[in-house]
Amino acid sequence: MTRPALAALAVLALALTGCAPSNASDTGRPSASGLAPQTLSVYAAASLTGAFDELATLLEDQNPAVDVQVTYDGSSTLATQIAAGAPADVFASADQKNLQPLADDALVGPATVFAGNTLRIAVAPGNPLQIETLQDLARPGVITVLCAAQVPCGAASASLLANAGVSLTPASEEQNVTAVVTKIAGGEADAGLVYATDVAANPDRIQGVTPAGADAVVGHYPIAVVADSAHAAAAQAFVDLVLSPAGQAVLAAHGFLAP
């Protein structure tokens, strides 16, 4: 081959090299073997802790380059943080009420309900005060804690108590359901209202009593990709996993109801 021809081939090779991406991480797009290297930030209601820890690990197993970081708290707290610009990629709320303002402001994409939950009376193991009904929560001497009204478990608790005609002043109002569990398990409170899944997740720390009317107050959990997510493909992959048969099986195993 002549020298001019070799030079032409070299120029062509350089041009092709410059046009082709060096790897998936350069483009941010999923590669043939999975998602590009990145950290995915999931904001999730505190009651989802066990299930979402498992689902995060499952997504990481399917995409070894992805590191899923889940932040758990009350849905109202997480929604406020996202509205203020927190770098979340996915938001999973314990109710539509806390997600709706974000949707109204186009801060999240379309939301899908992926699970349901109902309330239980939580007491110390062995139920030493023999608390069996919602009325027992208002008994003199019983220290009862609830979630704050703006938190989904607090709003659900208010509905459940109102339906039963029970009025009480809690010893404290917590910002997420995990804090209610912690106070009862630590002996700082005698009883409280938590989700059925919290009882299932803490069999050695608390005991659950199903109150009358629990089935009439069902919490519905929506999930959505945050609109300005820098990892939209990975965020959608996590949402798809939650909605998939495998994801639904994980949620069911943790005590969640089908959507």
From TrEMBL:
Belongs to the bacterial solute-binding protein ModA family. The lineage of its organism: Bacteria, Bacillati, Actinomycetota, Actinomycetes, Micrococcales. Keywords: Metal-binding, Molybdenum, Signal. It holds the Pfam family SBP_bac_11. The keyword Metal-binding applies. This is Molybdate ABC transporter substrate-binding protein. GO terms for molecular function: metal ion binding; molybdate ion binding. Residues 1-24 form the signal peptide.
